[in-house]
Design brief:
This protein has 168 residues and is of the alpha+beta class. It has helices spanning 8-16, 121-131, and strands spanning 19-21, 27-28, 35-42, 48-55, 63-69, 73-80, 85-86, 92-93, 97-100, 110-112, 141-142. It has one domain.
C-alpha cells in the first residue's frame, strides 16, 4: 500500500510538478450522478496522478474536482455548491472552498475558493488546473453541446449549466 503520509515538501513538489494527460483521449464532463477519473502523469513519467470530476445527482450544481497523487493522496480538491467545511481548528469555510494538502492533515484543511477572481465554475476549474500544475490541453475536458452560453462569449460547448458561484 502506498505511503499516504507525505511531508509538506513532498506534497508541494507533487503539486508543482507539471502534469500531462496520460493519453490523447478527449473526456466528456460527466452527467449528473456520475464520476470521471482522468489519468495524468508527470513529464518524466515517474509520478502518476488522477484528476477526478464528480457531479451530484440531485443538486446538479454540486460538483467536486480533485487532483490525486500516488492513487489515494488528495493534493487539491475544489468543492462547489456543497455544504460548508469545518477545518481542524474549528473555523467553518463556506462552499465553494478549496482543499490543499497539509502535512499531518491531508485534505482536511480548506480555504475559501478564490471567487473574487473566478466568478463561475469553469473559471474555478481553470484555477484548479493551475493549482495542480496541470498543463494538459484546454480540450482535455469538454462539456457536452447544447446548453446555454453561461459566460456570454458565444461558445456553446457547455451542455450542462454550471453554477455561477459568485451569486451565492
Amino acid at each position: 500500500m502506498a505511503d499516504i503520509n507525505l511531508t509538506q515538501d513532498e506534497a508541494d513538489k507533487l503539486m508543482a510538478m507539471e502534469k500531462r494527460a496520460a493519453d490523447e483521449r478527449e473526456w466528456l464532463f460527466p452527467p449528473p450522478g456520475e464520476r470521471l477519473a482522468i489519468p495524468l502523469t508527470s513529464l518524466d513519467k515517474r509520478e502518476n496522478f488522477m484528476l477526478d470530476v464528480t457531479r451530484a445527482q440531485i443538486k446538479l450544481t454540486k460538483a467536486t474536482y480533485q487532483n490525486r497523487a500516488r492513487a489515494a493522496i488528495i493534493l487539491v480538491r475544489l468543492d462547489l455548491d456543497g455544504p460548508a467545511h469545518r477545518n481542524p481548528d474549528g473555523l467553518e469555510i463556506p462552499c465553494p472552498h478549496l482543499h490543499i494538502y497539509r502535512e499531518g492533515l491531508g485534505d482536511k484543511w480548506a480555504i475559501p475558493a478564490p471567487i473574487d477572481r473566478y466568478t463561475n465554475a469553469v473559471d474555478l476549474f481553470q484555477h484548479l488546473k493551475r493549482s495542480c500544475n496541470n498543463a494538459t490541453s484546454p480540450t482535455l475536458l469538454r462539456f457536452r453541446k447544447g446548453c446555454s452560453d453561461d459566460d456570454g462569449d458565444g461558445n456553446r460547448e457547455t451542455s450542462e449549466r454550471l453554477p455561477r458561484v459568485a451569486e451565492r
